[in-house]
Amino acid sequence: MKSFFIIDGDSITGIIRAHFFGLKEMFCNGEMTKAVIAAKEEGSLKSFKEFFLSLEPQMDVVCLKAGSSPNQADILCGVWAGRFIEEIIASDCEAIIYLISRDKLVLSIGSEIQKAGIRLVLPALPCAQLVSYHNDFTTLIDLEGAVKRKHNDRSDTYPVPEWYSRTLSEEELLIGLECIKVGSEKILKKPSFIPFSNSARITVGSKADISLAIWDVPKGLYTKNVEFSYSALPEETWKIRSLKGHRRGPKEISVNENLIDASSGEISIVDGDSIKLGSFSFRFRTQKSEELFRYATPESLMVALEKHLKHLVDTSSDFIVPQDVLIEITVDGVPSWENAYICHYRKFLSHNWSNQKLKSIRTLFESKRQFNSKFVKLNNIRNKVMHPSRESISDEEKHLLVAFYLAFKAF
């Protein structure tokens, strides 16, 4: 089946254009024959042309520069729609015409395509009048942020998730759900990854913090199916709990193929665990340093780090305590690491740098000099964290604090 494309570039701009480009899998089912793009802006013509040629390098792409007069892009699209109709009828071939526009162009041009008996697909927001008498739409998409689907004589609107149409950052890809299977891809293709927000409690369902309604089957998900929660220090664990009673079949909820329900309480999960919500299948993904950066407070990280540092020096009988450190941590003639500060730990560790017990620490730094430099920064971070009147630490400083915590957590 041949595919022809008519694009009103003036009405598909910015984020709406990005949404459209995200639907590319929808257009690859037949022979992509020809595309006509009409727009005032050279940038719009160029981006659409590059998009289509990336899908089919041999495709015939015509770019039409519209003038400044009103609706000139619409007029050019109408002229080329007539040419496409004539070409399809003359060749007596099976064909689809994709009409990409967000204004009343779909009424006039769409009606003519219908009358010619040619299959019409509107990947953009269609006018209600056209929908009411055309029964062969493959997909109806509102590219401004919602999808409308017709069934049982009513129209339901589903939000397109904010994260769906943009490139996720490296950090966003560290915690969330790797999407294996969804209920339906009739409206929007399956996402590869669903990112978690910075909230330590996240619900998933048809109308939840993470809404999956757009990929659901009729009578599939509940409003809220499950809740994910993260317990920061000292637990550092992710848990999931079902918000519904015992269900089997199309509504069952399982973790690693074990059914769970509300009576199961919170179930601990780790990176790589499989999660099934009815017709949806996911693999849970997380990364320890990103967890701590997002959800642990700087105060709790610093307290935990100092606890591990103290445990290290208390259990290292073969280490040598520098004389100046020994003097400074001595009170009333009794030396105690309870009196130590970050600077004392730095001097102690630097003095024992070559000790075999610190091998894992040495691998994290290029040299002892770099170690000392980072530890000095850590001391500055502690001064900010433990004195509320001072400025907050930066993201870079929190990342460093997390890195030190993880480095000494084993001790």
Q: What would your notes on this structure say?
A:
This protein has 411 residues and is α+β, with helices and mostly antiparallel strands. It has three domains: 2-144, Rossmann fold; 172-290, Tumour Suppressor Smad4; 297-408, no CATH class. The protein is 33% helix and 23% strand. It is built from twelve helices and 21 strands. It has a six-stranded antiparallel beta sheet, with no helix packed on it. A five-stranded parallel beta sheet has the order 3-2-1-4-5, with helices on both faces. It has a five-stranded mixed beta sheet with strand order 12-11-13-14-17, with no helix packed on it. Helix 7 (298-314) packs parallel to helix 12 (395-408) and helix 9 (342-351) packs antiparallel against helix 11 (368-385). It is elongated, with a radius of gyration of 30 Å.
Quick take:
33% of the residues lie in helices and 23% in strands.
Strand content: 15-25%
**Span from first to last CA?**
66 Å
| Fraction of helical residues | 25-40%
The figure for the number of domains is 3
What is the CATH top level name of the largest domain? Alpha Beta
Could you describe the largest sheet, including whether it forms a barrel? 6 strands, antiparallel
CATH topology of the largest domain: Rossmann fold
Q: Give me the number of helical elements.
A: 12
Total count of strands? 21
Q: How much is the average pLDDT?
A: 84
Output the strand order for the largest sheet.
10-9-19-18-15-16
Supply the CATH architecture of the largest domain: 3-Layer(aba) Sandwich
Evaluate the radius of gyration.
Answer: 30 Å
Envelope shape: elongated
Low-confidence runs: 124-156
The oligomeric state of the chains shown is single chain
Quickly give the structural class.
Answer: alpha+beta
